[in-house]
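Dear U.,

Please find below the material for section 3 of the report. The protein was modelled together with pyridoxal-5'-phosphate; I have listed the sequence and SMILES used, followed by the predicted complex structure.
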Amino acid sequence: MAVPFADLQLQYQNIKGEIDAAIANVIRDNAFIRGSYVDAFEREFAVAAEIAHCVSCANGTDAIYLALKALKVQPGDEVITTAHSWISTSAMITHSGATVVFCDTDGATFTIDPAAIEAAITPRTVGIIPVHLYGQPADMDAIMAIAKKHKLWVIEDCAQAHLARYKGKMVGSFGAAATYSFYPGKNLGAMGDAGAVVTNDAALAEHMTMLARHGGLVKHQHRIEGVNSRLDGMQAAILSAKLPHLADWTKARQDAAEVYDSGLNQIEDVTVPQVAPDRSHVYHLYTIRHPRRDALAAHLNANGVQTAINYPTALPFLAAYERFGHRTGKFPNAHRDQGQILSLPMFAEISRAQLDEVIELVRKF
Ligand SMILES: *Cc1c(COP(=O)(O)O)cnc(C)c1O
């Protein structure tokens, strides 16, 4: 049996009527850029994310840029983030004019190690961007305590963590702002690029809105120099059609993870995802560790199971950061993990038979 890594076609078939109607409405109303569908999605997502303001934008990378710019990051400032993430997080720190400072992960959850943050703080540090990687919140109590003590802002990168909670509180509501991606493969995905930045701070929301829309809220009144980072009406309408399903899809991912956990956790050499007791994991990715990762991946792939490595090179060791001359010994957990992590098929519609097939193949290996 072939098991795809994700199955966006199946998701579409399950809600085809709703998606097709949403797209037809946007075309009928000529609501391609901005307009009522974008406004509606912003309102609906703010409610779902349990936050006051949602500013939609073109993608999750822009969302990070908008938040950094609105927080007035300047050349010479240092912003701390995790060594283990997608490059958007660190690249936007650089593009906003600041210097990126990497911290190692905690060795168990793949999220940033608060002790490493504390050690990385200098007089130039202005903020911290934790990433709720794979769908598990970072240790927000510890991070917020450090931020408070050193008067730093926090931007949560929630691109992989829609609806995840830390001690019952929704991710994205801890820091000054939080960023979401609605890339098609994310837990809530558009049919193209889409993103949002959320905040409880009305003034910050207004500033980010201006930045994303050529620097003004009213046409031809450019109060600042902005960029063009708009969510288009078609993507907004698609996201509004999908949003009511997100809670069920999240539960389905968690149920699938439970099946994986119980099937895999007794197998020698396999480390299943470790979830800290006070956090909920929404399993954007189900990522195991294995000392012979490449051979295991080859075995699964040869038997029709698609896998992925998220990510094969930790951020400090990418060619893009050669200028820092980072050595592997400074990020031992991120370095170990880049050689051992393997993401298994995970999507809301994955069947029990597909899960069993993956488990059986790992067991045989
Ligand atoms: C997907 C992702 C982003 C970027 O989102 P895009 O919509 O692809 O620009 C940023 N950070 C993390 C952790 C992501 O997974």
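For the text of the report, you could mention the following: The radius of gyration is 20 Å.

Regards,
Y.
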